[in-house]
Specification:
CATH class of the largest domain in chain A: Alpha Beta
Shape of chain B: flat
Mean pLDDT of chain B: 91
Helix content of chain B: over 70%
CATH architecture of chain B: Orthogonal Bundle
Oligomer: heterodimer
Radius of gyration of chain B: 24 Å
Number of helices of chain B: 14
CATH architecture of the largest domain in chain A: 3-Layer(aba) Sandwich
Distance between the termini of chain A: 69 Å
Low-confidence stretches of chain B: none
Number of strands of chain A: 12
CATH class of chain B: Mainly Alpha
CATH topology of chain B: MetI-like fold
Chain lengths: 437, 295
């Protein structure tokens, strides 16, 4: 009996050990070590997966080095994975960062990202010179930056993007606009909407349920109405959000809502739905990024549309749109294959590979010598790259809670719940609270 | 010999204790530690450097109006779930408890919504509610009720209720199954005796079913409150918390702090306060139910 008891006990302990070992290995993200000749890349770009796999195959054929692209989508899940991996020091050789510049800076300061400045400047800056300047700026930290990061270039842009307005040529022709010349000013835009309404056509559609798109539209007009210096002064806390220029910017949203210019349900609409509406000729204008070319092609290959800068309100300052690097890759500072990872990124951003990527994915290449054979609409996007900016290239960053209050407040203006003045006061109060901390 | 036996006993308990400590006590300790810090979730964590004492809790309890708005909105959804959802579940359980034709078929049908993916349910209903080409507006127009047509999820008057209704539709199956199981434990002889004594259906329900079902009502209420207060996926897939903050709930706020603003410490303090509120509600409910049973 005693022997049986002992055996049962030992069996139980053995089983417990196996269970613990399994749990330990799973929680430590255990996986078999890849061979020394394999570079691992984590990314979130499901639309580019097949093109990446093809390029990986080509690279292996050329160099014998295997490149293992691992896709983690959607982007939220990817962001979580990257952060968790940073905490456990299990980041891959190459990865991308989604988020704000302050997150990027935190990764650098934590020693996860390799400084590529020296590599970029080798051979008379051959690598650096192949990129659009704006694409590289997103990955660059200047001298005395507010994030406290050592100046340098920390990422490699894979493609560039910018966010503009799209207009449906067929719908504008339907209301008698022939030849189709898109509205250049805000008044023309509102005037055109009256004709659209008469025909029962919706005006502007965009995924303003995703608040960053509101932020983007808002920034465009803030730059146009008050200029870059004043916008940045506001972020620094030197100009209040209750300034008349800011109220004028907020007023534009109320104007659009009052004029019935915005598509139904725009305040909770995700961008995918907005893209479907525009692709199916349900709205005359869309506010979307250059990635839309690929999306619209898939949804409606016959869609007849063009890209334009958002109609300007003021002539005092230029219309500046969001743009720059679309997606970038960073090299893991702690990776033993750092050198090979850098060599691969050099190859990936070379003209031939960039032409292939642009052709396969309909995204603007980061390499400025790879712009041939791109669709007409995409070249319209490319033409406006000089007019781009992005919060990532500003030397100051707004508090996330202020951005959220601002964007959610815009939704409230659109649904008639708040006035521009009320929003301005609310945002300023939050800003002052954050500054006081 | 006694010492050996004691050691063996402890050894038997050890695996469970290790699992409990590893997956319950340590994470809770970690969350509590983080709630006292300001940390972005990326930089290496240094307690001394990141320590801000109770600042996160102070901000949450006294300055964050949106947090309390989200609590109230989750409370509204919970109220609807407690009343309409559970009333529907009980009514259907009562119907299925009788010897009706296709009883098993109905049981399967009523239990379908809870096993569907919440994301899929959210996306399908978002399409049904859509203001542009939604099925609901289409039906309303065809039924001559054009005056009711609206942007259901973008209108602050209707957005939260729309989400609450879908939550109830998705959740009533759980209550249905538990109520049905409870009803089937009531001895049939009691009903037969009541009938012999001349009791009508209402009297049977009120005097026999309800008192015997009190423990089941309590269980379902607690599960409904805990489940509904933590509603999250449905909100994300249907409205994303909008328009404005009208469909924000505590879990979406925690996510916004953690992912949107990179404020891990603040998110942890939100989690602790939220957990404490849920525990308090459950505690009050259990005390109340004990009192009711005694009464």
């Amino acid at each position: 009996m005693g022997c049986l008891y002992k055996k049962t006990f030992l069996f139980f302990m053995f089983c417990s050990f196996i269970v613990f070992l399994s749990i330990f290995l799973v929680s430590c993200n255990f996986r078999p070590a890849l061979s020394g000749e394999t570079i691992t890349i984590w990314h979130w770009m499901s639309d580019r997966e097949s093109a990446f796999l093809e390029l990986a195959k080509r690279y292996e054929n050329q160099t014998g080095i295997k490149v293992n692209f691992e896709l983690y989508a959607p982007s939220d899940a990817y962001t979580q994975k990257i952060r968790a991996a940073a905490q456990t020091n299990t980041l891959p050789d190459i990865f991308g960062i989604l988020g704000e510049k302050r997150d990027f800076a935190s990764f650098i300061k934590a020693g996860h990202i390799c400084d590529l400045t020296e590599e970029m400047h080798k051979d008379n800056a051959a690598w650096k010179d192949r990129f659009f300047e704006k694409a590289l700026r997103v990955n660059e930290f200047k001298e005395n930056n507010s994030f406290g990061v050592k100046p340098g270039i920390y990422g490699v842009p894979i493609d560039v993007t910018n966010i503009q307005m799209l207009y449906n040529k067929d719908l504008l022709k339907d209301i008698g606009l022939d030849p189709v010349i898109p509205p250049a000013t805000w008044d023309e835009f509102l005037q055109l909407n009256k004709f659209l309404k008469e025909k029962g056509i919706q005006g502007l559609v965009s995924g303003w349920g995703e608040i960053w798109m509101i932020d983007c539209f808002l920034s465009n007009y803030a730059f146009n109405i008050m200029g870059e210096d004043k916008v940045l002064a506001t972020i620094r806390g030197d100009v209040p959000y209750t300034d008349p220029d800011w109220i004028r910017v907020f007023e534009l949203f109320r104007q659009m809502a009052d004029e019935g210019l915005l598509a139904k349900g725009i305040v909770t609409m995700v961008n995918k739905t907005a893209e479907q509406l525009f692709a199916n000729n349900k709205a005359a204008f869309a506010f979307n990024g250059s990635w839309c070319v690929n999306v619209y092609k898939g949804m409606n290959p016959n869609l007849n549309y063009g890209a334009m800068l958002p109609p300007r309100v003021s002539d005092r300052y230029p219309m500046i749109i969001w743009g720059g690097a679309g997606s970038s890759f960073m090299v893991n500072e702690r990776s033993p294959k750092k050198g090979k990872a850098i060599e691969f990124l050099k190859w990936l951003t070379d003209t031939e590979q960039q032409i292939f990527l642009a052709r396969e994915t309909n995204n603007l290449p980061a390499n400025k010598y790879s712009l041939k054979d791109i669709p007409e609409v995409l070249s319209q996007f490319a033409d406006d790259m000089d007019n781009t900016t992005h919060p990532s290239v500003w030397d100051v960053a707004e508090f996330p809670v202020v951005i959220e209050t601002l964007d959610k407040g815009i939704q409230s203006i659109i649904i008639g719940e708040k006035t521009p003045q009320e929003l301005a006061e609310e945002v300023q109060a939050i800003k002052e609270r954050e500054l006081a901390k | 010999m006694k010492a050996k036996s004691t050691i063996e006993n402890y050894l038997f308990v050890l695996p469970a204790l290790i699992i409990f400590s590893l997956f319950y006590i340590y994470p809770f300790y970690k969350v509590f530690t983080l709630s006292l810090c300001q940390w972005d979730g990326i930089a290496p964590f240094n307690f001394t450097k990141n320590f801000v004492a109770l600042r996160n809790f102070k901000e949450l309890l006294f300055e964050d109006k949106i947090w309390w708005q989200s609590m109230a909105q989750a409370g509204y959804i919970t109220l609807i779930a407690l009343t309409f959802q559970n009333a529907l579940a009980l009514a259907l359980a009562l119907a299925c408890d009788r010897d009706i034709k296709f009883g098993n078929f109905y049981r399967v049908i009523f239990y379908l919504p809870p096993i569907l993916s919440e994301v899929v349910v959210g996306l399908v209903w978002r399409w049904i509610y859509d203001g542009n080409y939604g099925l609901l507006n289409y039906w309303l127009q065809n039924l001559g009720l054009s005056h009711l047509v609206r942007d259901w999820l973008s209108d602050p008057q209707t957005a939260l209720t729309c989400v609450a209704v879908i939550h109830c539709w998705k959740g009533f199956g759980w209550g249905f199954i538990i109520f049905l199981a409870g009803l089937q434990t009531i001895p049939r002889e009691l009903y037969e005796a009541a009938k012999v004594d001349g009791a009508n259906s209402w009297q049977i329900f009120y005097k026999i079913t309800v008192p015997l079902m009190v423990p089941v009502f309590i269980l379902v209420s607690i599960l409904t409150i805990l489940g509904t207060m933590q509603v999250f996926v449905l909100i994300l897939s249907m409205t994303g918390g909008g328009p404005g903050y009208h469909t924000e709930v505590p879990v979406t706020r925690i996510l916004a702090s953690m992912v949107g603003s990179s404020r891990f410490g603040y998110a942890c303090s939100q989690g602790i306060v939220f957990g404490a509120i849920l525990m308090a509600v459950s505690f009050v409910q259990i005390r109340l139910s004990k009192y009711m049973r005694q009464a």
